[in-house]
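Handoff note, outgoing to incoming analyst
You'll be picking up this chain. Sequence as last confirmed:
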Amino acid sequence: MGKITGLENARQVPPKVRKMYAAVIQMLTEGADVTGIRVSTITDRAGIGKGTAYEYFDSKEEIVACAVVYQLQRVFEWLENALVQKDTFAEQLNFLLDKMSVQDGRKHAFLRFVNLLTDNSEFSRMVRERMAAEDFSQYLPTHVFGRILQRGVDLGELRADVPLEYLIYNIFSHLITYMMAVTTEDCFRVDIQKMRPLVYQGIMNEVGADGRNAALLNGREQGEAHEDKY
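Most recent structure output, in case you need it:
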């Protein structure tokens, strides 16, 4: 097999490359700085020779970028498979909030990954370039969540009067708010137990079909009350 692009199907990735990917993700989860990671450190953790890395990659940056893209593919594929097994959008939303509430190092790793994907480094550019490729499109969060949310629209659980993109980014904004709260829970003394139901209800009020109907009814009641004054 020739050089690795990071967009290969999981079954096409050689075992030695998967070991390197695992080593990279482990280091990033532990808080390692991308610029400080060395090829020798990756291969040592992977239990392979340093020369093996250059059989598949031309640089350390390529190894790390491909590892991140590969991990994103796996995460979003797993997430979609888990969500489609839930019968309702409410169950899907509770599942997401459950996973985001897990008290382990992954919640902090999430923010590091967001930073890695959005800075102006060469590494970040390489990741974004791969994510923009057609082979990666099926794993994009907007596509994964779009397919899930479209089912909710078709079943009458979610609003059908707004674009699907609005539903996606509306839910993203709430979930990111919740993730920030979970991540900074200790620093800012956030009460996650109180915040979670508010996040859940906020999402359902804004994108749920019942929430929209309730909002419309509330709006009409307020209008009628206003008219009664005159």
